[in-house]
Design brief:
There is one protein chain. The chain has 700 residues and is mainly β. It folds into four domains: 244 residues, Immunoglobulin-like (Sandwich); 154 residues, no CATH class; 160 residues, no CATH class; 88 residues, Macroglobulin (MG2) domain (Immunoglobulin-like, Sandwich), CATH 2.60.40. It has four helices and 43 strands. Strand 30 and strand 31 form a beta hairpin. 44% of the residues are buried.
């Protein structure tokens, strides 16, 4: 784990607990530590101690170190092993961490960020210490004055990053000082020779990843000697006394995307007069505000990109080295993020947040590209959480005890799509998400659940542009759950052209055709569907009345797939059949066959697994969510012909982890998704007759 300098999390001020707030009580502080600041030749098995001026509340819990009652920043953040034990003095004022298991010849920089005493007071000021296992410490210093117009800089952490904080690496905090009073004068001592980027942060915490977390009301500043909105570095030679490193703090507050846009646009046009906005993204609050926005511009004359980031209104220019494909300007009349969030909350977002209180919201404005696998934004010191993939919303993948019902096109062609806001609600605790596509100018929801007939009216237009004589051959609920009234988020339509003697697939998400292409497989027949087929709402009503409703109400994780085809696999291929395939993690599958012209039940089938299949097991990948690597394990009860494949949400195979004969026992495979887009992926295990599909989330 690498310390990035800042990790923006959107934390509502009213939701901050005592363990996040930083009241300056003046009653609780660190009186001493061992080792003391500036110690050399420290034993690698040292017992690290922190003494406070009053008894500490050991029932308090902070995010980092996980489950500990003191919030600490650690550099480096890794030890040889876990400490042997943690104890308290009889008066509860001293914490002892026995045997830190430190690395040899390593310099450590710790900051005791927060703790709580028995009276409920938080630390008055963070307390930094630097010590080394080596025999000597460096003697260079860096000094200056930090100003905070109209505010008090006391308690500000002035830090030195060992890399450009807005580069892809992001840098690590290797030294720093807490400003003790309102003068803003600081001196950082014991600085090693090197190149550093000075920054300053006031009001912060250390999050669950050991990274700095700031929130509305925090303050941020960077050393920008030439005023170009790009952080400047300083060079420190051995033993040098660097002075005059002066800069300012600014309070960071949420803004909507358009609040800052005039300032960003002016800066972009100063870079190139023909600069156009081609993307923007941010992590959102429910009112559409964000502490962090990124605006990506493209210049046709320069044939180059430029990225501007805003931290609570502080504008920072960044460079890009990646080759991108976004060159079309976002329409000038795009709706602001506050209006978009009103629409999103009204279409399921509010309900999602009520069901999952930990929900985070991410938004991006761009032209949709369902085949994109590049992230144009640097990770840098700010983690960008913009989803580059387009996962299905609120999808529950149950245990798949039958073959997949849907085909996937090969060599698909992306369809020209409108500029849209992509709003993603995600719950880590629930491993659930809701994704909404909202047209940028009109605010129309593009991916609402639709019935098959409603979506097919859009697909037909695309198919007829491929072949004017296109006729509908089949329909599949493409990797999407069908609800109790026959609506799905994505439908796949297969068309046949007699003039071309070919099949063609068109996928529709909501009412938005997203891609088309050849099916890549041979159909058992080229007979197309008759006219007058029942829409999915009428057809599933029959299945629900015959037991589907009971199945939904009695089981967990119910997932329903649907297909409309001639009954090729049945006794009467001339019949046109709606097939509804119900699966659940808590019971056997249930299949309903409905005559698509008359609405009568043709068949109901329980698919009970054979005993041997119960011994095959596919486990949830770990970690999940992941970035960029994850591990997939499965058990085989006997030697089997096995395939383990990974698919994106369009049903396209993106990786094959195993294909061949494996012996009985536990098997482990690793997948590196560094070249894939963020979003939902499905991994499917087939072993003899056993088939199971599970979802996982890549979060870059």
């Amino acid at each position: 784990m690498c310390h990035k300098i800042i990790y923006i999390l959107l934390i509502f001020i009213w939701g901050l607990s005592v363990f996040f707030a930083k009241p300056v009580s003046g009653q609780f502080w660190v009186t001493s530590t061992f080792p003391v600041h500036g110690s050399a030749s420290v034993d690698t098995a040292v017992t690290f101690s922190i003494t406070f001026n009053s008894a500490i509340d050991s029932s308090a819990r902070f995010q980092f170190p996980e489950g500990f009652f003191v919030n600490i920043y650690l550099y480096p953040d890794s030890l040889i092993g876990e400490p042997d034990s943690i104890t308290l003095s009889p008066d509860l004022s001293t914490v002892y961490v026995h045997n830190l298991h430190l690395f040899a010849n390593t310099t450590y920089y710790f900051v005791i960020v927060d703790a709580v005493n028995l009276a409920g007071d938080s630390l008055e000021l963070p307390h930094p210490i630097l010590f080394t296992i080596a025999a000597n410490l460096p003697s260079a210093t860096v000094s200056g004055t930090l100003s905070y117009p109209g505010n008090d800089p006391t308690g500000t952490w002035v830090i030195l990053s060992n890399d450009n904080p807005f580069s892809s690496g992001g840098g690590e905090i290797v030294n720093g000082i807490i400003i003790p009073n309102n003068t803003g004068i600081y001196t950082i001592d014991l600085v090693e020779a090197g190149t550093y980027w000075p920054l300053a942060i006031q009001n912060f915490n250390i999050d669950q990843d050991g990274e700095i977390e700031i929130y509305p009301g925090s303050a941020f500043g960077m050393y920008d000697n030439n005023g170009d909105n790009i952080p400047d570095s300083i060079i420190v030679n051995e033993g040098a006394q660097i002075s005059g490193i002066d800069f300012s703090l600014n309070t960071i507050l949420p803004h909507t995307a358009r609040d800052l846009f005039p300032q960003v646009q002016s800066a972009a046009q100063g870079w190139s007069s023909d600069a156009d906005l081609v993307q923007l993204s941010g992590e959102l609050e429910t009112d559409g505000g964000s502490l962090f926005w990124q605006y990506l511009f493209y210049s046709r004359s320069l044939m180059d990109y430029q990225l501007w980031s805003s931290i609570g209104g502080i504008l920072i220019q960044e460079n890009l080295s990646e080759v991108l494909e976004d060159t079309v300007a976002i329409p000038a009349n795009w709706l602001d993020s506050d209006s978009i969030m009103i629409i999103a909350d009204a279409h399921g977002g509010s309900e999602f947040r009520q069901n999952y209180p930990d929900a985070e919201i991410r938004g991006s404005l761009k032209y949709l590209n369902f085949n994109e696998n590049k992230n144009p934004y640097r990770s840098g010191i700010i983690k960008t959480s913009t989803s580059k993939g387009i996962p299905l919303s609120n999808e529950k993948i149950a245990i798949q005890k039958g073959k997949w019902l849907y085909p996937s096109p090969t060599d698909h062609f992306d369809i020209s799509l409108p500029a849209s806001w992509i709003i993603q609600y995600y719950s880590f605790a629930g491993n659930e998400q809701l994704m909404l596509l909202i047209e940028a100018e009109s605010g129309v929801i593009l991916n609402e659940l639709t019935t098959a007939a409603s979506a097919e009216s859009q697909a037909l237009l695309v198919a007829q542009s491929w072949a004017p004589d296109s006729k509908l051959w089949g329909i599949y609920s493409h990797m999407s759950n069908v609800d109790s009234v026959g609506r799905a988020e994505m439908w796949m339509f297969i068309y046949y052209s007699s003039s071309l003697d070919s099949l063609h697939a068109v996928a529709v998400w909501g009412k938005l055709p997203i891609f088309e292409g050849p099916t890549g497989w041979t159909a058992p027949d080229t007979t197309t569907l008759p006219s007058g087929w029942l829409d999915s709402d009428a057809a599933i009503a029959v299945a629900e009345n015959q037991g589907g409703t009971t199945y939904r109400n009695s089981n967990q994780d119910v997932f329903v797939q649907a297909s409309l085809l001639h009954w090729y696999y049945g006794p009467n291929p001339d019949l046109t059949i709606w097939r509804f395939f119900y699966t659940s993690s808590t019971t056997d599958t249930l299949e309903f066959l409905v005559n698509a012209l008359t609405g009568t039940i043709v068949g109901i089938s329980d698919q009970k697994p054979t005993p041997v299949l119960d011994k095959f097991t596919l486990y949830q990948n770990c970690p999940n969510p992941f970035n960029p690597e994850t591990t997939i394990e499965f058990d085989l009860s006997k030697t089997s012909e096995v395939t383990l494949k990974i698919f994106n949400i369009l049903g396209q195979e993106v990786a094959t982890l195993v294909s061949g004969n494996l012996s009985a026992g536990k098997h482990t495979y690793h997948w590196n998704a560094s070249h894939q887009a963020s979003g939902v992926y499905l991994y499917r295990l087939e072993a003899d007759e056993y088939v199971k599909t599970t979802k996982m989330m890549l979060m870059k």
